């Protein structure tokens, strides 16, 4: 018995950009708002608290390197563990509400 050949279907979205988020579009159009946001971000990321946080993450990456396709994941207790990128990023999807863990 021969198997029936099914023609390949073309992905309708192939080659099309899905676009930007609403906020990205807004900041692209409004230079004053974008400048204000960038000034805030510059100050925020230069704070001692942020530098300390980045140093902690860098240290964790040195001590426990990721395998290919893995991220650092924050557990509820605050520990950092290696986890598959897909499952880590899928958890905090729409609304940022944790679904697993």
Describe this structure in words.
The chain is mainly α. It has a domain at 33-93. Helices cover 46% and strands 10% of the residues. The chain is built from four helices and two strands; from the N terminus they run H-H-H-E-E-H. The protein has helices spanning 22-29, 31-45, 48-63, 85-91, and strands spanning 70-74, 80-84. It has a two-stranded antiparallel ribbon. A hairpin with a 5-residue loop joins strand 1 and strand 2. The chain is flat and about 70 Å long.
Per-chain topology:
Blueprint: H1 22-29, H2 31-45, H3 48-63, E1 70-74, E2 80-84, H4 85-91
Antiparallel strand pairs: 1-2
Shape annotation:
flat
Q: Kindly report how far apart the N and C termini lie.
A: 48 Å
* SSE succession: HHHEEH
Please give the radius of gyration in angstroms: 21 Å
Tell me roughly what share of residues is in helical segments: 40-55%
Number of helical segments with 4 or more residues = 4
Give average pLDDT, whole number. Answer: 84
Largest sheet: 2 strands, antiparallel
Q: Name the structural class.
A: mainly alpha
């Amino acid at each position: 018995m021969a198997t029936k050949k099914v023609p390949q279907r073309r992905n309708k979205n192939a080659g099309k950009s899905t676009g930007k988020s609403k906020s990205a579009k807004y900041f692209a159009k409004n230079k004053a708002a974008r400048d204000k946001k960038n000034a805030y971000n510059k100050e925020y990321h230069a704070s001692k608290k942020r530098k300390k946080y980045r140093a902690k993450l860098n240290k964790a990456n040195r001590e426990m390197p990721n395998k290919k396709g893995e991220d650092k994941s924050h557990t509820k207790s605050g520990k950092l563990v290696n986890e598959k990128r897909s499952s880590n990023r899928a958890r905090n999807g729409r609304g940022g509400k944790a679904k697993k863990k």
